[in-house]
Amino acid sequence: MELSQPSRTAQGAAVHRAAHQLLDRPIVFEDPLALAIIGKDAESEVRAGTGWHGFAAPGLRAFIVARARYTEDALAEAATRGITQYVLLGAGLDTYAYRTNRNRLRVFEVDHPATQAWKRERLTEAGIIIPPNVTFAPVDFERESLETGLARAGFDFAAPAFVAWLGVTPYLARETVIATLGFLVRSLARGSEIVFDYAEPVDRRDPVARARFEALAARVANAGEPFRCLFNGAELNDVLRALGFVQLRDLDAPALNAIYYAARSDGLRIGGHGHLIHARW
To answer: Which of 162, 244, 254, 246 is nearest to 200 (CA)?
Structure first.
């Protein structure tokens, strides 16, 4: 992303969540603020059914919706076990904290300063009130560490937390992804957990999958945020275990389709090479 500009892919993910509210039935992930948070121009496009985020990209929309639903369901379960801190790494236009009543859950929204300032503008324009349990943690990773940003925001490293890291790892260097995961397992209290997604290399023998991937890669590259990191699933799971993660659950497209899209009549299904990992330490 351009350092002075908000993330284009964060905006794209938010538009997909908004499009889901209008285009798909039944709704897998209900977000009553999804349309308001994206801004009036983007909302008009979604309502008009224009743009590739709508009718032209149902497989990607299905993945973005499923990962959001899984994450919030897992967070709800974690809260029943006593977790009281929620960290959104790369929060983008996520609306969780503004549409739930979990006031005892401290929410730390971590993002690049430009993206976070843009989000706060969207919240103001939409008339969405920022609840007192939300703490914004702007972190410019070119100049400071995640640890510094969380400490400045008042995060309690002695208490377990739930971490969501969605739609970010493909745009980072491989060593950055592994270093961040290593920091989390070393620095956050035992009993913490994470949900994050990653992308596998496409099967080049499958022309449909290859064309789909290349089209998506071209779009994000044109937005200034090219794919930089793809993981082989078995290799990544070995890395996670070596770092100290336990109770790994790696959900690929077929697994997520079986959970969220098996009985649909509209044909909405995840197509592609995205995975969702849920792990604890």
So the answer is: 254
At 255, is the secondary structure helix, strand, or coil? helix
* Total count of domains within the chain: 1
> Is this model's pTM higher than 0.85 or not?
yes
pLDDT tops 90 at residue 9: no
Strands (E) located in 3-151: 85-89, 106-111, 134-138
Show the domain range for 170.
8-280
**3 is a domain residue:** no
Across 21-37, average pLDDT: 96
Task: For residue 35, give the amino acid letter.
Answer: L
* 2 assigned to some structural domain: no
Whichever domain contains 101, its CATH number is: 3.40.50.150
Site of tokens 């400071």: 144
| Helix, strand, coil in percent for the chain, rounding step 5 | 45, 15, 40
Helices (H) and strands (E) in the chain, counts: 10, 7
pLDDT tens, position by position, 209-249: 666 666 665 666 666 667 679 999 999 999 999 999 999 99
User: Is the residue at 86 inside a domain?
Assistant: yes
Query: What's the pLDDT tens digit per position in 129-139?
Result: 999 999 999 99
Instruction: Determine, yes or no, domain membership for 1.
Output: no
State mean pLDDT over 48-69. Answer: 83
Which bin fits 35, alpha (ψ -120 to 50), beta or left (φ > 0)? Answer: alpha
